[in-house]
């Protein structure tokens, strides 16, 4: 039987044997393992290829100084697991509570070695199908009309073993170092190889190329032993607390900013690295000059024959020679293994280090090829958390749901509720959901109205960039209008040049909620599904086209949107205005009154009270009905003649039982009144 099963997974193309799987995942880093988890839970045929002997090989080397910048907040004061994931930036999603990162480290900023151990346990405890020591060196296409996507993906590893897949999930991350070539760049040390021992830099003068977390991490490590450190980059420093982007400079690494601004020798400079040149003198010192000074010059002729900037400008900023120059320019995606037939093209501008993909995370050039994890960050680069574990664990789940619908006919998971639960459902999600919170402006909850707005269907964490394709991508219908629940920062609050600590920066009044600066829920209402054209023409920096109505829930200092007057009441009134209905909850006595005094009952009365088996009689209800003029105040003698009851109280109960109003007559009365 084993041989038969093995043979069934083999196929032969032009004399070459291919091992077939429905899904191939390249890379067993966090996003690759996350994808494997969802595929395994769904019972799909898949394999994960990992070039190293263990998962998470990137974290075995990086960050070089072993301190992660992803927070591990072990205590939040709440026991809700979904809420706690908002402040756990390292755990992957699974059903196994043993695989929460807080069980692996007590550190707020954990050690990278702990991440390696965590990923090893994630793969082994969940028994994920990972094939180690397998480096995929070439990927190409084979056209076939019978394939899921009109073609198969053919993969070859370092041992010339061939594999064939219907869908390809690329989870390799960005691991190729960014290198800038200029005259003298051979004297530059790379972040990936530079010493991490501070004593190797004692008494030295150092220049660092770059201004990201890796550059500041390196500077932080040697700050106390160097003569001084200079840092050069083409752009100004971006602080994460100002940009609200976790990939910008984090406070844990910014010691150099103190020593720069407090004039303790260290400094930051801006300049295009491609305009630089490095000259090495006879003593081994490195001098910075500009490329145009070397035009038509022989750099091997010696430094004495080369003009330096300080020869013309005697206070040139980098006139002092350096002992070492370190390159810390980040990483880029490896395009080298993909055949031209896949049309894997780099992005444009500051996204050129990532492959071009759609908002659905599918390649723009090849159907069926999806990019996961850090390499998919072009969708929300410098906007949200899609390049980091606490963001792409949710986008990976979204991709899996898209694939389940496309290839297996499994619609996007949803829950149907009566319309009376609309306000509660939104309040619950904005207060608990981690995916909405981390992937703000990218993932949203979609509420599809059904049955003349008497019910709704709730879809969680759908990519808003493909909202126009919702019906085909999810298998759900949006024929009666929809709400989109999303989290956003204020439009003009984030930026490298913004003062995010200015006085009166927070909004507290519900009527000014649209001016909220900090992260807060926003609800968009559309009478119909937006079109592709409307998505393309949406206003700048808007995640969605202009809606028929929009509501901001005012920002909250505790991120706790449960205040009855400030949060819930304005939301409920907004929903009521959109639906032209009453979403309040009522006591039975009020529903009883409405049944006889209104042409249309509120949804709560129709969906709850009227569908009961009948009115339960009580003395309080009878007296209320009499006082309201809804019932005649018949005396007991009208029903019992001259006979007096043995017990006055017992006769009243008997009276109410005998005259209990069943549901059908009540509905008949209401219908008659409507007519």
UniProtKB/TrEMBL annotation:
<keyword id="KW-0732">Signal</keyword>
<dbReference type="InterPro" id="IPR036188">
    <property type="entry name" value="FAD/NAD-bd_sf"/>
</dbReference>
<keyword id="KW-0274">FAD</keyword>
<dbReference type="GO" id="GO:0036503">
    <property type="term" value="P:ERAD pathway"/>
</dbReference>
<keyword id="KW-0285">Flavoprotein</keyword>
<dbReference type="GO" id="GO:0050660">
    <property type="term" value="F:flavin adenine dinucleotide binding"/>
</dbReference>
<comment type="similarity">
    <text>Belongs to the FOXRED2 family.</text>
</comment>
<comment type="subunit">
    <text>Interacts with SEL1L. May interact with OS9 and DNAJC10. Interacts with TXNDC16.</text>
</comment>
<dbReference type="Pfam" id="PF13738">
    <property type="entry name" value="Pyr_redox_3"/>
</dbReference>
<keyword id="KW-0325">Glycoprotein</keyword>
<feature type="signal peptide">
    <location>
        <begin position="1"/>
        <end position="15"/>
    </location>
</feature>
<protein>
    <recommendedName>
        <fullName>FAD-dependent oxidoreductase domain-containing protein 2</fullName>
    </recommendedName>
</protein>
<comment type="function">
    <text>Probable flavoprotein which may function in endoplasmic reticulum associated degradation (ERAD). May bind non-native proteins in the endoplasmic reticulum and target them to the ubiquitination machinery for subsequent degradation.</text>
</comment>
<dbReference type="InterPro" id="IPR050982">
    <property type="entry name" value="Auxin_biosynth/cation_transpt"/>
</dbReference>
<keyword id="KW-0256">Endoplasmic reticulum</keyword>
<keyword id="KW-0560">Oxidoreductase</keyword>
<dbReference type="GO" id="GO:0005788">
    <property type="term" value="C:endoplasmic reticulum lumen"/>
</dbReference>
<dbReference type="GO" id="GO:0004497">
    <property type="term" value="F:monooxygenase activity"/>
</dbReference>
């Amino acid at each position: 039987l084993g041989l038969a099963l093995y043979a069934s997974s083999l196929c032969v193309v032009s004399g070459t044997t291919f091992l077939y799987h429905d899904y191939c995942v390249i890379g067993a880093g966090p996003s690759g393992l996350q994808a494997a988890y969802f595929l395994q839970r769904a019972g799909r045929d898949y394999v994960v290829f990992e070039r190293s002997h263990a998962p998470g090989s990137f974290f075995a080397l990086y960050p070089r100084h072993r301190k992660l910048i992803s927070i591990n907040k072990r205590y939040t004061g709440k026991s809700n697991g979904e809420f706690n994931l908002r402040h756990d930036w390292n755990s992957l999603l699974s059903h196994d509570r043993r695989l929460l990162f807080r069980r692996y480290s007590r550190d707020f900023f954990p050690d990278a070695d702990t991440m390696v151990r965590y990923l090893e346990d994630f793969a082994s405890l969940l028994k994920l199908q990972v094939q180690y020591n397998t480096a995929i060196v070439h990927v190409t296409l084979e056209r076939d009309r019978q394939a899921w996507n009109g073609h198969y993906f053919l993969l070859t590893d370092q041992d010339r073993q061939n594999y064939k897949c219907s869908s390809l999930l690329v989870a390799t991350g960005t691991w190729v170092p960014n290198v800038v070539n200029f005259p003298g760049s051979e004297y530059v040390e790379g972040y990936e190889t530079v010493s991490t021992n501070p004593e190797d830099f004692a008494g030295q003068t150092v220049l660092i190329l770059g201004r990201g977390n890796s550059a500041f991490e390196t500077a932080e490590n040697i700050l106390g032993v160097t003569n001084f450190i200079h840092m050069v980059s083409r752009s100004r420093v971006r602080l994460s607390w100002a940009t609200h982007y976790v990939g910008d400079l984090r406070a844990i690494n910014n010691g150099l900013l103190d020593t720069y601004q407090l004039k303790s020798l260290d400094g930051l400079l801006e300049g295009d690295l491609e305009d630089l040149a490095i000259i090495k003198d006879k003593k081994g010192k490195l001098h910075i000059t500009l490329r145009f000074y070397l035009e038509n010059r022989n750099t091997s002729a010696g430094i004495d024959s080369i003009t330096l900037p300080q020869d013309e400008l005697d206070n040139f900023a980098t006139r002092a020679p350096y002992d070492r120059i370190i390159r810390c320019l980040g990483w880029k995606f490896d395009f080298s293994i993909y055949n031209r037939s896949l049309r894997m093209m780099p992005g444009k501008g500051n996204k050129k280090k990532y492959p071009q993909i759609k908002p659905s995370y599918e390649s723009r050039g090849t159907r069926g090829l999806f990019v996961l994890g850090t390499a998919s960050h072009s969708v929300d680069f410098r906007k949200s958390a899609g390049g980091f574990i606490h963001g792409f664990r949710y986008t990976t789940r979204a991709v899996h749901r898209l694939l389940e619908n496309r290839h297996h006919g499994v619609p996007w998971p949803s829950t149907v509720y009566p319309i009376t639960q609309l306000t509660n459902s939104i309040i619950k999600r904005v207060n608990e959901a981690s995916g909405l919170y981390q992937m703000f402006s990218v993932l949203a909850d979609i509420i599809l109205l059904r049955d003349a707005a008497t019910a709704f269907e709730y879809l969680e964490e759908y990519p808003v960039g493909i909202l126009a394709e919702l019906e085909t991508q999810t298998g759900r219908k949006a024929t009666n209008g929809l709400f989109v629940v999303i989290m956003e920062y204020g439009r003009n609050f984030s930026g490298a040049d913004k003062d995010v600590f200015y006085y009166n920066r927070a909004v507290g009044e519900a009527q000014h909620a649209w001016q909220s600066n900090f992260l807060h829920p926003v609800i968009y209402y559309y009478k119909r599904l937006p079109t592709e054209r409307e998505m393309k023409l949406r206003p700048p920096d808007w995640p969605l086209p202009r809606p028929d109505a929009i509501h901001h829930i005012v920002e909250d200092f505790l991120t706790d949107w449960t205040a009855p007057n400030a949060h819930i009441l304005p939301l409920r009134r907004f929903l009521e205005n959109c639906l032209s209905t009453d979403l309040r909850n009522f006591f039975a006595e009020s529903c009883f009154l409405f049944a006889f005094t209104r042409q249309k009952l509120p949804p709560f009365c129709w969906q709850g009270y009227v569908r009961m088996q009948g009115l339960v009689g009580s003395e309080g209800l009878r007296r209320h009905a009499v006082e309201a003029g809804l019932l005649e105040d018949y005396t007991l003698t009208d029903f019992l003649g001259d006979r007096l009851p043995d017990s006055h109280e017992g006769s009243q109960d008997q009276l109410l039982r005998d005259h209990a109003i069943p549901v059908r007559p009540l509905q008949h009365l209401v219908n008659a009144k409507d007519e």
